[in-house]
Specification:
about 375 residues, alpha+beta, Immunoglobulin-like, Four Helix Bundle (Hemerythrin (Met), subunit A), 2 domains, five-stranded antiparallel sheet, disordered C terminus
């Protein structure tokens, strides 16, 4: 009998828990009558999309007029973090305008627009952005839900949306309303007319593009050049090693640039200067490969001109590659860790080359001095004491 009461108690607890969970979740089938204040625009034509099911983020939206867009963005307040929706031109967080809402306790919360000019805290500026927001409010529901209600004035609105969740227990506060770095994000492309969404995940493609280009045009090309300049005493091993490294770096670099072109097309990003420098690097790389095919013999009278051409084209290629890599890290909005890691790698190679250059200079000077020592003929005249 006691066991039956115990099982009944467990069943009631589970039933109540499940009902609480259900009521704490929003869905596109739910209505908006539970909101504690009226919505300042018509909600009958709103489309609905579960934009981030893992966190139960729901977005309702419609184009209310030729230049006005209506949005209702709901999120569970039991996540104890801020929720954000970002409007991005190219799918990146940096350069987008975000609307952030938070509700640490029922009835207490806030909502602000932020301009995401960079990844550091000082570059996330409150009450600023490229969008004009009106009729904005954050409204609690009778359950543990928060609703961000707002309208945007724009003739054409970007279809690239970003959603982010903040760190647990950290909210923007008066007076500066600084926004802490998000703990998770998702990138989506939305069709406002059809109400369809698709997730955009270009992280692997971005990483492939960056790592291949860093390893090929910068690191391997520098290593191959160091071998060619400072290890010629290991003939002919140095030549085969130099040629193999440079050809492998060239092929890997071609693949890396191709990944970049695909990424640029997917994001529809305007990276004209970065792309033009990459094309120049490919041209210089092709000239280097062609130079290997046209290499004259060591005794040829034009060999010194070939050497001048080959050495200087290689140096120019490496300079452009290093500069374009730093520029690419900047365009990608990569954090300081990437800049630091790449900068340290280049610095190590430069220091190593500098040491080898000093060593080579010392050896050449010794050899030059030894050839300049005069040899005096022995005199047949004996000195008298």
């Amino acid at each position: 009998m006691k066991m039956a009461y115990f099982c009944l108690l467990i069943f009631l607890i589970l039933l109540c828990s499940s009902s609480i969970i259900v009521t704490c979740q929003d869905s596109c089938a739910s209505n908006l009558v539970e909101l504690q204040q009226p919505i300042p625009f018509d909600t009958k034509s709103l489309l609905c999309s579960p934009v981030w099911p893992d966190h139960n983020f729901i977005l309702r939206y419609t184009k209310a007029s030729s230049d006005v867009w209506s949005f209702i963005f709901s999120f569970p307040t039991n996540i104890k973090a801020y929720a954000a929706i970002g409007y991005s031109k190219d799918g990146n967080m940096v350069g987008s305008t975000a609307i952030v809402g938070w509700m640490p306790s029922p009835g207490a919360g806030g909502m602000k627009m932020y301009s995401l000019d960079g990844k550091s805290a000082k570059d996330v500026i409150p009450d600023k952005g490229e969008l004009y927001m009106m009729n904005a409010s954050i409204v609690p529901a009778s359950t543990s839900l928060g609703y961000m209600i707002f309208q945007l004035k724009a003739t054409q609105l970007t279809t690239k949306l970003l959603f982010a969740i903040g760190p647990n227990g950290v909210f923007p506060n008066y007076p500066d309303y600084a926004l802490s770095k998000h703990s998770g994000q998702i990138s989506l492309v939305i069709d406002y007319s059809k109400g369809t969404i698709r997730e955009v995940s270009n992280l692997k493609l971005r990483r492939s593009h960056g790592i291949l280009n860093i390893a090929s045009w910068s690191i391997l090309m520098i290593i191959g050049s160091i071998i060619a300049r400072y290890f010629k005493q290991w003939d002919p091993i140095w030549f085969y090693l130099h040629a193999s490294i440079q050809i492998f770096g060239f092929l890997a670099g071609i693949v890396g640039i191709f990944c970049g072109l695909v990424l640029s097309k997917k994001l529809d990003s305007k990276v004209t200067h970065h792309k033009n420098i990459a094309i120049l690097i490919i041209v210089l790389g092709c000239l280097q490969v062609l130079a290997i095919k046209l290499r004259p013999g060591k005794d040829s009278r034009i060999r010194k001109y070939w050497n001048w051409y080959h050495y200087n084209i290689g140096r120019i290629l490496i300079c452009f590659a290093v500069a374009n890599t730093f520029y690419g890290l900047h365009l990608g909005g990569e954090g300081s860790k990437w800049f630091l890691a790449y900068g340290v790698s280049i610095a190590i190679l430069v220091i190593f080359a500098f040491i080898l250059e000093i060593r080579k200079w010392i050896i050449v000077r010794k050899e030059t001095n030894s050839t300049k020592i005069p040899s005096f003929p022995q005199s047949n005249v004996e000195l008298a004491y």
